[in-house]
């Protein structure tokens, strides 16, 4: 509070003496000792005395008197009671703003500098400078004033001051003057910010050479490239035209322009000024996720649809209901802002912590701009319905012994307490894993067994989970678990084997070397640690020899009959299905192969064909041997079924080399006498056609015939022409007279 006191120049000093505390009871006079003085600053115009008064006691009374000193004599005024609220001089209004309304009037608005504890009235003075200059002063109680009849090309200067509404106190100082000018073409509003799917309208007044263009003569254009249909025009009055856009689509930025320019034109003449239309897609998707510990909810959203709106700010606002979500979420007036942090991926991330699992969080994005604010459609999220569980723990994977299945086990996460479903992905370990999926819908399950093709490979396995009712998200995949390569069963069978004989064929003792091929992992399930050869004879009984990891073993054949079996042994045991081979002196003289032929088809393939002698014998299988007689590169062999009569041998055969082919019949009682040929069969292609390769040659002959027939048909006419060129003219040759050449032609 300040007081303005007039004083003459002969006053030496002036001070204000008052009770420091305001009071609302004037019946009790304060003691003289309770008064205190406030020094005043005096000038020729008067004295100013500043008295601080608490805001809460503006309506109380303040007791004071004035004390002046002149020429050593002090004078005192009578005791006065002053109520501060009745002598208030407010500060001048601020934020003076002017805009054209939709119906073409000038709206002047302002704000009070501070919130006054009592209602105010305002005095507005303005001057209009157009074709005719006018001035006006009006007193209003609201912080705005509407000036009618605004014309294009006008200029307005406005000032405002305030005072208590009950006329007590003093008028404030005038606000700083504000000037507002209108253009020859007035758009109101000059800019519109709206959302996709909404409607928007522009108004305009067009002034051309000091004449207002009739609203019926105004046409509208979009970006000066598209004339707006006249059905969207309407005349508000004789000078104001209106255009309306319905169900607006998002504005497509054109270079640096993020708006559509709307032009108000007089016939074919368009002024360079335009209105700006900003249409923003506010359909922003907000996705939320509750962590596996159920302690916080993280929401993410992208402002990509509104990034073209320069100068805008975005904010997530939310309202939490006490329980669950409503069927139709709506923007609640009592909302709160949420601080969100922009991430590197362009998304904003907001964290709600702590959370109420069963409370409905209604949230939306508010876009703030100088043109206004827009809200995205609200969405309601229940934290309990967007849980992303922790991944299952203690995941293990193994190939089960004796069953041969991939067994996966895991432990369910503690939270959430809802029933969970599980998903397993598994594949062969490597650089590019081809994943296979398996779903487990049993909430109580903690393991699953899956069939796999390769039991002897390393598999990588991961497990994830989500709520069984489908709400929420899949958890992250668990840490990978790997199977160990280990034997799951005994080998499926023993190896196929054959023998090499050494020594004199006339003697009863010969060295026999067994040869076998290593078992593949699919047959060995999954490894072979060693091979064991079992012997059985009539006199010596049965014994075994450990061959270790070798693929051959030599023994002495001295008995009438000697049977051997080769077993494959892994960490679980020995193979059950094994091949037997019996060496018998009587059976070695039995000849069951009547003929054997070998025909080379190419350098990589030879076809062997044979015939068997008729007889009553128990033939188990046949063994083919072949070797290069010019090189000491060893013998090669194949075991084939007993019902086969021809076989293709694939190897590298050199045409100029000499090869030996042998065919052994193998009986239950022993190996029979072989049929041996040195070199390829020499009786020509007829033998190949009749015995072994007939089905190879016949297609070639058929193809040749087809080609020959085609050639004959194509050249038929040419043959006729060539033939008749050699026929003599009957008129010139006596021997040709009397012959019917027409008949010859018909025959041809």
UniProtKB/TrEMBL annotation:
Primary site of residence: membrane
UniProt xrefs under PANTHER family: CYTOKINE RECEPTOR (PTHR23037), LEPTIN RECEPTOR (PTHR23037:SF44)
Domain of life, per lineage: Eukaryota
Name by which UniProt lists this protein: Leptin receptor
Its job: May transport LEP across the blood-brain barrier. Binds LEP and mediates LEP endocytosis. Does not induce phosphorylation of and activate STAT3.
Domain Fibronectin type-III residue range list: 92-185, 391-486, 592-686
Keywords: Cell membrane, Disulfide bond, Glycoprotein, Membrane, Phosphoprotein, Receptor, Repeat, Signal, Transmembrane, Transmembrane helix
Membrane association type: Single-pass type I membrane protein
Localization per Swiss-Prot or TrEMBL: Basolateral cell membrane; Cell membrane
Pfam families in UniProt: fn3 (PF00041), Lep_receptor_Ig (PF06328), ObR_Ig (PF18589)
InterPro entries: FN3_dom, FN3_sf, Hematopoietin_rcpt_Gp130_CS, Ig-like_fold, IgC2-like_lig-bd, LEP-R_IGD
Subunit and interaction comment: Present as a mixture of monomers and dimers. The phosphorylated receptor binds a number of SH2 domain-containing proteins such as JAK2, STAT3, PTPN11, and SOCS3. Interaction with SOCS3 inhibits JAK/STAT signaling and MAPK cascade.
Record family assignment: Belongs to the type I cytokine receptor family. Type 2 subfamily.
Entry annotated with the keyword Cell division: no
TM helices/strands, residue ranges: 692-714
GO molecular function term, any single one: cytokine receptor activity
A single cellular component GO annotation: external side of plasma membrane
A GO BP entry: system development
Keyword Transcription among record annotations: no
């Amino acid at each position: 509070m300040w007081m303005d006191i007039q004083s003459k120049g002969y006053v030496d000093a002036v001070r204000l003496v008052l009770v420091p505390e305001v009071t609302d009871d004037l019946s009790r006079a304060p003691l003289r000792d309770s008064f205190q003085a406030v020094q005043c600053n005096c000038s020729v115009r008067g004295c100013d005395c500043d008295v601080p008064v608490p805001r809460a006691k503006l309506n109380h009374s303040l007791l004071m008197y004035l004390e002046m000193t002149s020429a050593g004599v002090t004078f005192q005024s009578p005791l006065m009671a002053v109520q501060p609220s009745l002598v208030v001089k407010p500060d001048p209004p601020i934020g003076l703003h002017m805009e054209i309304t939709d119906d073409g009037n000038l709206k002047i608005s302002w704000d009070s500098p501070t919130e006054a504890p009592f209602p105010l009235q305002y005095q507005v003075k303005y001057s209009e400078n157009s074709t005719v200059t006018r001035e006006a002063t009006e007193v209003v109680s609201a912080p705005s004033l509407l000036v009618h009849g605004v014309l294009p090309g006008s200029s307005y200067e406005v000032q405002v001051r305030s005072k208590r509404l009950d006329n007590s106190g003093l008028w404030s100082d005038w606000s700083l003057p504000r000037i507002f000018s209108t253009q020859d073409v007035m758009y109101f509003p000059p800019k519109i910010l709206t959302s996709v799917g909404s409607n928007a309208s522009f108004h305009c007044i067009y002034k051309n050479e000091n004449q207002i263009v009739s609203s019926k003569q105004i046409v509208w254009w979009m970006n000066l490239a598209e004339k707006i249909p006249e059905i969207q025009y309407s005349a508000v009055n004789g000078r104001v035209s209106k255009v309306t856009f319905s169900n607006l689509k998002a504005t497509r930025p054109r270079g640096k322009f993020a708006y559509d320019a709307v032009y108000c034109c007089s016939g074919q003449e368009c002024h360079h000024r335009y209105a700006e239309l900003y249409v923003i897609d506010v359909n922003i998707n907000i996705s939320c996720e509750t962590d596996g510990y159920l302690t916080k909810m993280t929401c993410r959203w992208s402002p990509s649809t509104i990034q073209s709106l320069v100068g805008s700010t975005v904010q997530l606002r939310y309202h939490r209901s006490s329980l669950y979500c409503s069927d139709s979420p709506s923007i609640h007036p009592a909302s709160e802002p949420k601080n969100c942090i922009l991430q590197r991926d362009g998304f904003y991330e907001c964290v709600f912590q702590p959370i109420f699992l069963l409370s409905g969080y209604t949230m939306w994005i508010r876009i703030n701009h100088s043109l206004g604010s827009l809200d995205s459609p609200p969405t309601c999220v229940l934290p309990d319905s967007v849980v992303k569980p922790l991944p299952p723990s203690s995941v293990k994977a193994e190939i089960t012994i004796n069953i041969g299945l991939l067994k996966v086990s895991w432990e369910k996460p503690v939270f959430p307490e809802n029933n969970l479903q599980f998903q397993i992905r598994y594949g062969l370990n490597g650089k590019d894993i081809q994943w296979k999926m398996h779903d487990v819908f049993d909430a109580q399950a903690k393991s699953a067994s899956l069939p796999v093709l390769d039991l002897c490979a390393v598999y990588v396995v991961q497990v994830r989970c989500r709520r069984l009712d489908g709400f929420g998200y899949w958890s992250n995949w668990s840490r990978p678990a790997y199977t160990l390569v280990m034997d799951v069963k005994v080998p499926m069978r023993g190896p196929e084997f054959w023998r090499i004989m050494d020594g004199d064929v006339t003697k009863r003792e010969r060295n026999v070397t067994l040869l076998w091929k290593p078992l593949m992992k699919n047959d060995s399930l999954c490894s072979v640690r060693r091979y064991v050869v079992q012997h059985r004879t009539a006199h010596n009984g049965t014994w075994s020899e450990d061959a270790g990891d070798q693929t051959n073993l030599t023994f002495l054949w001295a008995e009438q009959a000697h049977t051997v079996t080769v077993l494959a042994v892994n960490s679980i045991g020995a193979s059950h299905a094994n091949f037997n081979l019996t060496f018998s002196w009587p059976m070695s003289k039995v000849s069951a192969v009547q003929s054997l032929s070998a025909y080379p088809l190419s350098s990589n393939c030879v076809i062997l064909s044979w015939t068997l002698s008729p007889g009553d014998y128990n033939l188990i299988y046949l063994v083919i041997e072949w070797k290069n007689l010019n090189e000491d590169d060893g013998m090669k062999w194949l075991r084939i079924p007993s019902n086969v009569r021809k076989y293709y041998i694939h190897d590298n055969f050199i045409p100029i080399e000499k090869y030996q082919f042998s065919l052994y019949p193998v009986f239950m009682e022993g190996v029979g006498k072989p049929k041996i040929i040195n070199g390829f069969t020499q009786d020509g292609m007829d033998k190949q056609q009749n015995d072994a390769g007939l089905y190879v040659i016949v297609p070639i002959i058929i193809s040749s015939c087809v080609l020959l027939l085609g050639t004959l048909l194509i050249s038929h006419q040419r043959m006729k022409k060539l033939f008749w060129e050699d026929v003599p003219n009957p008129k010139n040759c006596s021997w040709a007279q009397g012959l019917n050449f027409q008949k010859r032609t018909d025959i041809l």
